[in-house]
Model the fold of this input.
Amino acid sequence: MTKELNWEEISFTIIAYAGEAKTHAIESIRLAKEGKFDETINLLEKAEESLIVAEKAHMDVIVKEAQGEQLPFKVLFLHAEDQLLTTQTIVLLAKEFVDLYKRIGK
Done:
């Protein structure tokens, strides 16, 4: 018998860590704009670490479904996925912004 998923725990883990990653990514852009590149590296690393935690929680659900388990539709989980996917994009863009600010010599 497989372990029952705790939807609320999974969803809130994703939301919390995706939110943390988003905050770090946005802050890295602000610091890059100010020319504080050493600090941006640290923030982007923290953003990646937070994303990894969120992605692992998300993967637990994906694996269950891939194994053929029929999973119920949960609106809270859908919201968590939305937050995760948006944050992944923001982190990618933050890296590009930081690189751009470095190139223009800010």
